[in-house]
Amino acid sequence: SLAGAVARWREEGRLAVWLRIPILQSRFVEAAASQGFAFHHAEQGSSTLTLWLGEGPSRLPGYATHQLGVAGAVLDESTGKVLVVQDRNRTLNAWKFPGGLSNPDEDIGDTAVREVFEETGIKSEFKSILSIRQQHNHPGAFGKSDMYIICRLEPSSFHISFCQHECLRCEWMDLDELARTNHATPITSHVAKLLLYGYREGFDKIDITMREFPAVYTGLFYKLYHRELPESYRNIT
């Protein structure tokens, strides 16, 4: 049946076929492979195979090549202290900002707020993006590329109740101390200095903020992250 369908699709001038096979019907993968299908990606309950029918090499897009990690630098401006953790089960117990991987359909700021709460029990609000790290061949991403974003958050609670499974230690540390200590991860040290600069000289000098706009697709919206524009420029028509 599949062989006949592939022949018909070629005659109709189709360029490509996407074939989704539920996990409980995975026996059909062998039949698809015999017709030239190859794996594209797999999820919990299914695998997706593709067959390029056009001329030349396949022009189908690859599956996701990056994972997205987000951390939250929660700064209490009234005390100058920032929330830091040490991961459990790490060879080097260095101070870092709490964070983790973003879920599908989850905004960057929401990931930071959620991860901070899950790891430390601290509630917070997203204020801005401070930095973006790009790294390739990441061992923790199955050899794929990794994007790691650190956000500035404002706390709305202050009592720490950290996750014993993920964290070895958690505390409010003086930001100036974090910027100077040798017991922090390299990226934490760099961002701590950036945060200290913003804390002393004004966050407008370091913040990448977010605005939401309607997308070209009806009913959808997108979030645009950028340095703030003066109002006179924002209102240009």
UniProtKB/TrEMBL annotation:
It is an enzyme of class 3 (hydrolase). One of its GO terms (cellular component) is mitochondrion. It is found in: Cytoplasm; Nucleus; Mitochondrion. Its EC number is 3.6.1.-. It holds the Pfam family NUDIX. The keyword Transmembrane does not apply. Keywords: Cytoplasm, Hydrolase, Mitochondrion, Nucleus. The keyword Glycoprotein does not apply. GO terms for molecular function: ADP-ribose diphosphatase activity; NAD binding; NADH pyrophosphatase activity. May contribute to the regulation of cell proliferation. Belongs to the Nudix hydrolase family. This is Nucleoside diphosphate-linked moiety X motif 6. It comes from Nyctiprogne leucopyga.
